[in-house]
Structures are given as structure tokens and as C-alpha cells.
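Async update (no meeting this week)

Hi team, since we skipped the sync, here's where things stand on the single-chain job. The sequence we agreed to prioritize is pasted below, unchanged from the tracker. I ran it this morning and attached the output directly underneath so nobody has to dig for it. Comments welcome in thread, and please keep replies under the output.
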Amino acid sequence: GGTIVGYNKGSIELCASEGCIGAWNSNETGKSTSNYSYIGGIAGINAGTITKSSLSGSGKILAQRIKEGQIVEGTTNANVGGIAGYNMSGATISECYFEGIRVHGDENVGGIAGLNAGGIENCYVGAAYSSSTGIYSYVGGRTNVGGLVGKEEAGSTVENCYVTANVYAYGENAVAYAASKNATNGVL
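Output:
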């Protein structure tokens, strides 16, 4: 699901959200046994175009990370993104940004898209939010975590994007990519 639409087949333009979606557990206690997949700040799944849209302010995507011992097949919180959970082949996300509180889940977690098979261009993930309780913007997950994209499928592109948020991977031997595994003309 997404705060604007669950599945976008058309065009979304000039949308702004400050909503929250997911497990609603901002303390990140690791106690969730819920299964949230394909969730994004604008769209859960994008098969069309998302342009000039954002999740900002107090907005957050909280697919609570599950403890290592709790994970069983089919229960991970996967494909979680600040703009779209999954950007499908042929779909485009452009001139969009995430400046909310944070995005986190188990696998395929990204500031713009959790899983990308399409094109992402001219986007950024910022870290503007902070509070007196010490909560700062970040992108975090167990595995396949990126400031822009958590996991890329063959043929996907990421161009002219930048990230200023903190990015964390909590899984054993997991790598957190500042932007994504492959990106061109970006600033980190």
C-alpha cells in the first residue's frame, strides 16, 4: 500500500504526503511479527510515472524489522520505499524526494524505492527531520538497503540523484549502499 495509492498504472504528479504507513512502531523494538510488503510513501507499486512528489515532514514508512530468530519464510517486511515499494520495469520516478522521519523494514529497503526494475532520475533523499527526542531521518533494514534503492533488478537505472540521509544495514554481513548498488551521475 501507499499513502496516496496502492498500485499506480497511470501518472502521479505534484503529490505531497506527510503520512505514516506500516507497523506504526516508531521505537523499532524488533518485536513485530507482522508482514508488510510493497509499501511506499506515494505508491506501494509503481507501474506508471511518479513525478515531482514527496514524503516529507513527519511522514514515515515503518515496516518494523523482525528479530533474526522470528523470521520464517514469507514473514519478512520487504520492498519498502520512501516513494514506492516497487518501481516496475518501464515505470519512472523522477524529481521526487523523501525528507520524512525514516524508512525501515527487513529487506529491499530504499529511500526512493525498495525494489527497482524501472528508471529513477533527478531524485534525492534528505535528512532534514530531527526532534528533541533525538529522532533523525534514516533509511534502515536487515539486507538490501540503499539510500535511494534497496535492490535493483536487471535493466533498472538510477541517474542524477543524491542522498544526505544516514543508511544502515543491520543483517549479518549486510552492506548498506549510500545510494544504490549502481547509480550514475550522483552525489553522495
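Quick observations from my side:
The CA atoms of residues 13 and 132 lie 33 Å apart.
The chain is about 0% helix and 45% strand.
Reply here if anything looks off.
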